[in-house]
Design a protein that fits this description.
CATH architecture: Alpha-Beta Complex
Strand content: 35-45%
Number of strands: 7
Helix content: 10-25%
Order of helices and strands: EEEEHEEEH
């Protein structure tokens, strides 16, 4: 199982979502910033590193939200979601084809990766 970490990055009652590029699996679907946890790396450190690599920002990892598991045809994933906030830098789309700040109640208007269904439903129910 591939261990992944993702950040629900918030600012002014909005959340940052990222659109996957055409060249990757789940092309053009939306997700939360994050990625694979490397060997001997904590979940929090992986999220900090991934957000720097993907968005060119330094984040503060806040509360753990949930862990989900999903089986794609080619890989099983475990995703650990955390609330986070940007503490330094202006977000840039370095790896995604688009990024947006949206209201929590707008999340259902976007087509997310299948593995993100549970977190999207949780956020809409608990933050709207």
């Amino acid at each position: 199982m591939l261990k992944i970490v993702a950040g629900v990055i918030t600012k002014d009652d909005k959340v940052l979502i990222c659109k996957r590029p055409e060249s990757k699996s789940n092309a053009l679907l939306w997700e939360f910033a994050g990625g694979k946890v490397e060997k001997d790396e904590t979940l929090e450190n992986a999220l900090i590193r991934e957000c720097f690599e993907e968005l060119d920002v330094k984040i503060e990892v806040c509360d753990f939200i949930m862990k989900t598991e999903y089986s794609y045809p080619d890989v099983d994933v475990e995703i650990n979601f955390f609330y986070a906030k940007i503490i330094n830098g202006q977000e840039k789309s370095l790896e995604h084809c688009d990024i947006k700040w949206v209201n929590f109640d707008e999340l259902l208007n976007f087509k997310f990766c299948p593995a993100d269904k549970d977190i999207v439903n949780f956020l809409v129910k608990n933050r709207s």
